[in-house]
Amino acid sequence: MNRQLMCVTCGSTYPLEARRLRCDCGGLLDVQIDMDSALSPEALAATFESRLPSHLPQDLSGVWRYRELVLDLPADDIVTFPEGRTNLYTLNPTPLGLSALWAKHEGENPTGSFKDRGMTVAVSWARHQGARALICASTGNTSASLAAYGARAHLPVFVLIPNGKIAQGKLAQALAYGAHTLQIDGGFDDAMHAVEQMATQHNLTLVNSLNPFRLEGQKTIILDSFFQLGNMLPDWIVVPGGNLGNTSAFGKALIEMKALGLINRVPRLAVIQAEGASPFARAAQGDFQHFEPMQPETVATAIRIGNPVNYDKAVRAIRFTNGIVTSVTDAEILQAKHDLDRQAIGCEPASAATLAGLRRLTREHVVHPGESALLIITGNLLKDPDTTIALATGQTAALGVQGAPSLDACANQPRHVPSDPETIARIIEEELQ
């Protein structure tokens, strides 16, 4: 399919090969598909289905399997593990009064988060263009993913992370995979400002979600869910909101799927932010007429972002889907994390914002009884083991979580017992009564 870059603000277009992150007007860029060159919806579905038995690396990928709607690249340029082969789990909808509830677990990707879907496309395109080196700012998941894909592509990787503001499970990946890791004095937004400037001035390829090719990979979360659900989508798709890359990608996916005739009805997006990092939710209260960055603080490190670069695309996504944006407290996030973990849908805190937000939206009668919803679980439980241990041992107050006493019932502390089998057996029997 024919493609070009298009500015979401002024509509200016550029060749797909143009090495730029923004339009001359400063606006964000989209990879625009020429819909006139697209296959019919029936032919697209048949093509995607035909690749399921294939053992080719690009067909095994849950991203490149949909390449007609992602990007056309020679197979030798594609950097894949493969990724995107994530499960969709059925949850009990009754407590929320819903007709159906699912969780799409993007934490099952190779490096444990949804970032791998976008990174395979961004890094493959970078290799195709002969990139000198790759760079990103990160709260953790992006750095882990880029480090892995950069290693597979044999390209140097530089990651900027906030000093002391990154979960150890994520930092460990960046270090282990060989990324040059630079801890800055400042937050994610400071790092993002720095990498965008350096990418332009020093011929480095930026792979944050400001890079439009990243979003082409992330939109396959919606495509994958559509086909896993038997060519349908629920009434609501619920996603955490940080830098708003997924929000933007999901909106783009739904715009394209509607235009291509894959769907007739557009689901509503619900974007959930942490209260301490909720600039998008605050802007939504005034119908996006005013945006003000904030100094973010939340236990959900993956969405601890106060000035999201994808704001304009995310606004488009909410307006197109008649969506909603709301925020939840850290205590609500951790309670939801506990509840998801107990169903073996283990996730990092940011992922649990989805369930916490859905609970709020049902309480407020925004999501109505009998509707269906899909939770996007963005990261694996082991991404942030420290928070998981704190929750299980009743130590959330030490994390600075307001309302920590409400989480005491979530504790599941290990017990020190003697090595005597009879004593151990007695304790087990007591627990089984």
Task: Describe what this molecule looks like in 3D.
- The protein has 433 residues and is an alpha/beta fold.
- The protein has 3 domains: 1-34, no CATH class; 88-112 and 213-410, Rossmann fold (3-Layer(aba) Sandwich); 132-202, Rossmann fold.
- The protein is 37% helix and 14% strand.
- The protein is built from 15 helices and 13 strands.
- The chain has helices at residues 41-50, 57-60, 115-128, 141-153, 168-176, 188-202, 212-218, 220-228, 245-260, 279-285, 311-320, 330-341, 349-363, 385-392, 421-432, and strands at residues 3-7, 13-14, 29-33, 88-91, 100-105, 134-137, 157-162, 180-184, 205-206, 236-240, 268-274, 324-328, 372-377.
- The strands form 3 sheets. It has a 6-stranded mixed sheet, with helices on both faces.
- Strand 4 and strand 5 form a beta hairpin.
- Helix 3 (115-128) crosses helix 7 (212-218).
- The protein is globular.
- The model has no long low-confidence stretch (mean pLDDT 96).
Brief write-up:
By secondary structure, this protein is of the alpha/beta class.
